[in-house]
Amino acid sequence: MSRLLWLLAAVEPAAAEGPAEEGHRPAEVLLHHVTDRALSRHFDYGPLHFEPTQHLVFFVIAAGLVLLMCRLALRSYQKGGVATGLAAAVETVVIFIRDEIAEKNIGHDGRIYTPLLCSFFFFILIAALVGLMPFSATSTGNISVTLGLAIVSFVAMQYAGIRKYGLLGHFKNLVPPGLPGWLLPIMIPVEILGMFTKPFALMVRLFANMLAGHMVITVLLMLIPLMAAINVAFGWAVIPVSLALALFIMLLELLVALIQAYIFTLLTAIFIGMFAHPAH
Amino acid sequence: MNAQALAYFAAGIGAGLTIIGGAAGIGRLAAAAMEGIARQPAAAGDIRGAMIVAAGLIEGVTFFALIVAMLLVLLK
Questions:
Q1: What are the backbone angles phi and psi of residue A45, rounded to the nearest 5°?
Q2: Chain A: residue nearest B63 by CA?
Q3: Are residues A69 and A48 located together in one domain of the fold?
Q4: Distance CA A150, CA A146 (A)
Q5: What interface predicted TM-score (ipTM) does this complex get?
Q6: Fewest CB within 10 angstroms: A34, A120, A142, B54, which?
Q7: Which helix (H) or strand (E) is A112 found in, with range?
Q8: DSSP 8-class letter at A97
Q9: Which positions in chain A touch B63 (Cβ < 8 Å)?
């Protein structure tokens, strides 16, 4: 059970075992690779843990990179007004998000959600790309981080509905008009559940995608010692296969980083659009 | 067979079934998208975008099941 808590709360007890002792079982290597680790124990106050963890550090690095990138892109506008270099790349993505994601799925008033959607897109993309570097960790491969993103997305959805129809109208819109009265006891719980399953699905999708790629790469590389334990010749023979497959999955991860950032952004926009324009 | 062996067994079978479902879904999706693109190459961009979103949704559900299978192994 404690393993589940590690994966969910994603903080592995740091002092439990040294690096020399761990790694004797494949499942533990795998788990060690994807779970969070506390980097120091200086900020423990009883049951509260404020210590910097590996995922937290890379979360801050990814967020810092996004801010830095946008600041650098802004400089080009202050100089001339024509976007060049980095600014042109950022501008392309921002305009794509504004025109193709926000306005198409939310409607003509979808423009005000562009900053939020851009933040989601750039953060998820950069966090996933940072996670592909050697000696780093994917902060979005931690369910607490994706929970945070999903909560922001949930608040945005509710805000969109309440802003347009008022608090009462927003909840009235959950049930389509003209529904027979006897269906109400079924429809109301289903719709309220649907309100929460949307961000929940966003949370699990991003978490699982980020986790799965890293696990597959680890498993492929772990084939080498597993085979070498049977026979040293097997170990040598499996090295090229293992490395080639791991490289392939690594390249696939580049694609997955882009696709997941796109899907999270797009689905948030679609869900916001659903609450802003309920079915009539 | 003790409980741990059963858990490994269930995880293996579960992962296999998950992949069958996911592959069937994405396969049908890709086939339909290719047919659509072949019939109307001008709409290739839109079809590709819609396909990626649908593929992401299918993949998401597949990952739900894979995580359940993974927990069976990791929790013991």
A1: -125, 90
A2: A208
A3: no
A4: 6
A5: 0.73
A6: B54
A7: none
A8: I
A9: 204-205, 208-209, 212
Residues A91-125 pLDDT 10s: 999 999 999 889 888 888 888 999 999 999 999 99
- Picking from A1, A3, A201, the nearest residue to B60 by CB comes out as A201
Distance CA A218, CA A31 (A): 10
- Amino acid identity for residue A138 in this structure: T
- Which pLDDT tens digit goes with each residue over A19-29? 444 446 777 77
Judged by CB atoms closer than 8 Å, whether chains meet at B53 and A27 is answered as no
DSSP code, position A60 = H
Residues in B closer than 8 angstroms to A31, CB to CB, are 74
Give the Å distances, CA to CA, from A167 to A154, A164, A170, A226.
Answer: 15, 9, 5, 59
Q: Was domain B3-70 assigned CATH 1.20.20.10?
A: yes
Write down the residue that tokens 């579960």 correspond to: B14
Closest-CA distance, A1 to chain B, in angstroms, reads 6
Q: Which residue has the higher pLDDT, B57 or A133?
A: A133
| Residue A38 DSSP one-character state | B
Instruction: List C-alpha distances in Å: A4 to A38, A113, A139.
Output: 17, 36, 18
Cβ atoms of B57 and A208 within 8 Å: the answer is no
Mean pLDDT estimate for chain B: 87
**Could you give the number of structural domains in chain A?**
2
When CB atoms are compared, the residue of B64, B73, B74 closest to A204 is B64
